[in-house]
Write the structure tokens for this entry.
Amino acid sequence: MVLYRRNRIEGGTYFFTVTLKNRTSTLLVDRIDNLLHAVRTAKRERPFRIDALVILPEHLHAIWTLPPGDHDYSGRRRGIKAQFSRSIAKSGVDVHRNAKDEYDLWQRRFWEHTIRDDTDMERHVNYIHFNPVKHAWVTTVRDWPHSTFHRYVRVGAYSLDWAGGSTEPEGGIYGE
């Protein structure tokens, strides 16, 4: 078994990319209620803060901050993926099972990055919020409903016309 090295900082803040195996699927937005229920359940069972989030049809990006003394983001992520898979299978969606009889919906691995400082945080939050435009799902950031962008607008961190939809904010590619 390959041992992946992950940075684990108790109470740390992490950026993630998690992807469905089928990159043409739209399950995450088609079944958004199931996904959000899985996230709420995970937060209730093992608290964490969602600093930023965007849910696209076949992948999502998030920034989480864990509580002091806790570094288990992998367990939370695994729980969300498992609950989402079970709930959509139970509702009648045909979810393939692998040779181990596990639901085979998600890519096994995920991209993770430890947020280092305020500049790093800002770049990753901007990346998350611009992602629906980058992937041509919408032409302006404000038009994508499955994003914490709208929360950032409400608290005054962004204007409603932030990024204007024409150019990617300063930063780079993270997790794709």
User: Anything to note?
Assistant: Residues 171-176 have pLDDT under 50 and may be disordered. The CA atoms of residues 87 and 93 lie 9 Å apart.
